[in-house]
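Sample 3 of the quickstart, ligand biotin:
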Amino acid sequence: MNKTELVKNLKTDYLGKPLIYTDCVDSTNNEVKRLAKKGCPQGTTVIAERQTSGKGRFGRVWKSPVGTGLWFSFLLRPEADFSKISGITLAAGLGVCRAVRNFMGLDAKIKWPNDVIINNKKICGILTEAAAEADKIKYAVVGIGINVNNRNFPDEIKEKATSLTIENGNIPVDRTEFFKEVLFYTEKCIDCYLENHIIPEDYKVLCATLGRNITVIRGKNVLKGIAEDISESGDLIVTDENRNKVLVNSGEVTVQGIY
Ligand code: BTN
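Result:
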């Protein structure tokens, strides 16, 4: 990829403006956080060919090999309560899902809260890190990792990970053009959420978790039940084994038939 092509005909209002393209960084989330602390504007985006310390959720490592995926993060400075953070992350996941569907014609779905999956395997993960000021968002860094042209995965994840090219009959995908589509749809979904204070309706249509048996691990507690619905703020509404309705807003979720 190169910077000139990455910014050419970008259809966004603010995402990718400015765009910082780098060969190698510890983590694009870390880099955007450093820039945020120096006062850089909303929309600032860092994309790297390779990360040496890519981070996943729950303190996991996110492997980011050179030249295969899209590893990038952007800065938001919304005027919003801190409680909107999880909704912003869900909206970003919906944006990636829409981009995959529209650009690639693949049947992408969402595993709540924000993994994007194809054929029940993960192609995208999102890690949002935010700073608060009183109960408001000071800034939010949304980090997105998408497996695009990866042909194989490390043993630990090969059962549950896939890439766009694998799902597309091994035809290589133009990362530059796809990146611009992702920024476009992601910005649209985030704006829609922040304007209407409700997760866009098609999130539920595309959410593969709904209607399935799930297990949620929250610290030492394990909750088993059926994922029934998504609340306005993006919580998962679960009917547990005693038929009680439980709201889940964090935790690691295993979905029967997915992962
Ligand atoms: C997950 O599913 O666990 C979230 C993975 C998020 C990975 C992306 S890659 C770009 C950005 N930089 C990071 O260090 N992490 C995110």
